[in-house]
């Protein structure tokens, strides 16, 4: 059966497929037509760029616009370039021919390209360049890339015609011979990874002025010092290949016979530095990294009197002594990163250096005595990161590090640190690995009061480490110049759960940025931030704060950014931001807010520019209507699409973006008060007084008039009260029983004698049934339900549940069987959302009045409302 029923569909299938595919087919054919007719390439008219990469081309396409400036034909199958290939495109400036298999280039191929600036021929593995004058026409060539082309031969004086070449990259070829005697001023020549064995006058002729020539990864076997000396290059690089001491000596000796400034000999198995290796020389920059040097000898660098930077990183040096560097008068930067240094100045000698920067990262230092840097009076930066076993660094007044400005101790293991460094401005002690879980770094900064930047992130600090509560002293006392302080990722609370104490930051009058991210803070003392009169940025992200005292931000009158993302906040006090008139950014995402009070935001409404309230369980109801309206204003809402209404929201809003909340539809129109002129005001008052006095007569007249004029034209529910089990169901709060007894019962008996089967409140519910079931039963089986609202009633949860049940039935049955009576005036903000929603939809409601003149009108209207059932109509108000 199933198959037979499907059969017609199956028969239709090809047709359906055809219908679906036809537009695609047409489109495809259309595109193909475009390809073949004009070009297979993508053309960007604005840049005049033709992108023909990866198109399976076997020659340069000849159907491109002839004014192209950029031509990209990488990743094709081009094997030859002819002298006619570029004749059509004289304006090409950038030509990329890489990743083809070009084997042959006719020598006049590039002649038409007078503007050629950038030529890339890299990764053509069988490339052979023509012997003569390939670039004769390319006077403006500035970059030539010939990487990995297996080039065995570079034609003599290839660059003779191109005085503007700046970069030529010949990396990874098979050149053994170079003859470039004529060329312009090159900034960078990369000849690394070739097969050059001899740097001699026969095989290496290089007359170009250049900044830097990279000759590393060449199996250099012999060097003529005169060739090195005659190279007019400022810096040379050798290595990444084991070089013999002979070669190294010849290189160095050549360097010293010229005015070269930079030399790098890296990874060339230069394990021992012979004592007389360095002669007096003009070198200012020397790198000997990665050579496995194990030890240095006294005075080994002494002839390098003009050297400014010495890099000895990635060797195996164990001991560093001042005497190694004796005489290096100009040395400013010494880099000893990534060695195995365990001892620094073990004999407490005096450094006769004017060093500014000393890098000692990633070594094996454990203890640095107070005399280790004796004499380095001008040292400003000391980098000791990643000395994972460094536990002692004594910087005392004897250390003479008077100019030290920056000390980096990240990833060290200091348990105590008390620097006496008056000019210290930047101190980092992040990720300290204190070996024992019971010790935390004991830091004293009272002799380094110039600090401006202090970072102690993720170093197991506890509150006790920054606040000595026995004497009320803070680690930060006296740091009146501190501008940024980052204490993030320390679990302040974990060991001794307590609120974050007062006054820790009291003396930090200059502090602008305070980071307390993920610090396990669960509570803050109201005076925790006192004294921070310059604070701009406060980051408390990712803590466990549940509540904020209304005075917590009172001192922060300069604050512009407060980040409280990822805490456990549920409510913000109305006065929280009363003294933060410069706040521009407030981040409160991922907390537990269900509601907000408009008053809280009044003081910062005009300054605030962006706001993040995403990932909070807002219950969207008319109470936060203002918030929704505010969000849709000028303010920038971060993660707007993640600012959602929770499941506790009104039905249509649950799980939806708060911004979708159509407040005017769900909460009635916002009454905008238009300023009246005083005169109009007076007239209105007079009219109101007159009308008010006669209001009941007027209302009665209007009501009768309405009955007469329009009758009951509304859509009446066809069912009669007799069709129901009960006539009238009255829902009221216990306290209102007296009103029911004294007013309602007599009036109903008099005016609606036909209603005999009435349910008055809970006592008439069907016994034996579950309470809510009984409520539900009565509501659904009554012709009318009357709800009596009073201030006490709306605060009762059970009462509201009953209203909800009734409302649900109104929606379900689409019958207007509920009538609401206000027994007293209820202030707007107290009216529960549910009731407000009901009213705003134009559903029937009446106001009871104590004024006896109004009673007649009230009962007439009630009786009318109780004797008919209209169909609900959400479009036209019923009243
Ligand atoms: C290039 O040509 C070779 C052989 O001629 C062929 O196998 C290959 O698929 C072609 N590559 C492209 C991208 O057309
Ligand atoms: C040469 O190239 C530069 C840009 O590098 C350009 O400004 C200049 O106009 C070009 N000159 C010629 C003659 O093409
Ligand atoms: C370069 O010049 C030398 C000497 O004149 C010559 O022997 C050699 O053939 C030339 N090489 C090329 C590729 O022209
Ligand atoms: C280098 O090239 C120039 C010009 O092509 C030539 O005169 C010279 O002999 C060549 N030198 C060597 C060593 O090949
Ligand atoms: C490195 O140099 C040492 C002696 O200095 C030598 O014994 C060793 O063979 C060299 N290693 C290589 C790879 O050249
Ligand atoms: C310094 O250079 C001189 C020659 O200029 C040389 O004799 C001496 O050995 C060198 N000293 C060192 C320590 O290398
Ligand atoms: C530190 O620098 C000053 C100024 O450049 C200089 O006069 C002084 O000699 C230097 N001190 C040392 C120990 O080199
Ligand atoms: C250096 O630091 C260690 C450990 O903190 C301490 O015991 C020692 O007394 C200090 N030495 C000096 C000279 O300050
Ligand atoms: C360093 O501190 C001393 C006082 O200890 C002061 O005289 C000197 O000027 C400071 N130097 C700098 C660069 O601030
Ligand atoms: C908002 O705060 C004001 C001022 O404290 C208070 O009167 C009002 O009841 C609060 N409103 C809500 C909805 O909490």
From TrEMBL:
**GO CC annotation:** plasma membrane
Q: Which Pfam family would be a valid example here? A: LRR_1
- Give GO BP annotations, semicolon-separated: cell adhesion; immune response; toll-like receptor signaling pathway
Specify the signal sequence span: 1-19
TIR domain sequence ranges: 724-866
Task: Give the membrane topology.
Answer: Single-pass type I membrane protein
The UniProt entry's sequence similarity note says: Belongs to the Toll-like receptor family.
What protein is this chain from? TIR domain-containing protein
This chain's source organism reads Strongylocentrotus purpuratus
